[in-house]
Hints:
Elements: E1 8-15, H1 18-28, E2 32-39, E3 42-51, E4 60-65, E5 78-87, H2 91-100, E6 109-111, E7 114-120, E8 126-132, E9 156-163, H3 166-175, E10 179-185, E11 194-199, E12 207-212, E13 223-230, H4 234-246, E14 255-256, E15 261-266, E16 272-276, H5 305-311, H6 320-326
Parallel strand pairs: 1-4, 5-8, 9-12, 13-16
Antiparallel strand pairs: 1-13, 2-3, 3-4, 5-9, 6-7, 7-8, 10-11, 11-12, 14-15, 15-16
Amino acid sequence: MTDPTPGIHHVTCIAGNPQRNLDFWVEALGLRLVKRSVNQDDPGTYHFFFADAEGTPGTSMTFFPWENFRQGKVGSGQVARTAFRVPEGSLDYWQERFEAYDVPYSDRVERFGETVLPFEDPDGLPVELVAVEIPDDDPTVPWTAFVPEEHAIRGFHSVTLWLADPEPTEDLLRTMGLTEVGTEQAQGDTPGDERTRFAAAGPVGKYVDILPTIQGGRQGHGTVHHVAFQTPTDGEQESMRTAVRRAGLNPTAQIDRHWFRSVYFREFGGVLFELATNGPGYDSDEPLDELGERLVLPGKFDARREEIEAQLTDIEVPRPGEVAAED
């Protein structure tokens, strides 16, 4: 029997300017840069990991800032929306913050009994905040350098998939251990008539919503590259890989990504899925209090440090004292 996934591990997106990406996700949204590295398949490009204070599984939004890539368009076969949890009662704070930082946002909507605040990052990536009750034993650890604890983002809430033919993907989610919890009329700028929600077993990043659409899209700035689901151990990952293969898909062999081990496959609707282990973790090569402070080059890449650093755009990580001094 396949061990069910606890939920989302991370979401990886495509950005443009790396400094603009850093400024927004660290300063405006208050997430911690827990890893500064490079795309392991394209080491001339940064790979930024933004998460909670400790890089807890289920909290990291990661980016490839491909500066010369085209602007993307959200459409069928993509993760169309990525939603984060925030504590109940904090959406007024976030709306005021978005106005202060000139962040485009839309009217709040009610979805499955929760209030959702949609917005966009500087590359046009569709993102949402969902107000939820955060339990006392929640595994996430808020980072409070820019946003106070009572309003801080607390990991993923959900991803929304836009699919031309949802049924095969819905069956796949059931294979992965998610359970259908309801369907309701879609609201906002989504193109489908109905939103169907599936829930995983864990406390963070547990929901996957599916909306039917044939609206065309293209990968580029402001789109999601892939979504990763937790398979905490190697054994659980191999069990899930076997189940996915039996479902008719073609997962890769395990690939060592240094902070976790990964398996990739495109699900039936075209969305790139990843299965990721929970270890070794972002603090396996840096002290917890120094995460993101330096460029980390996994394995063979460190021998090419001088060459790689010469290709990368100079960046500065926002720091609260420096931001206050500039103001």
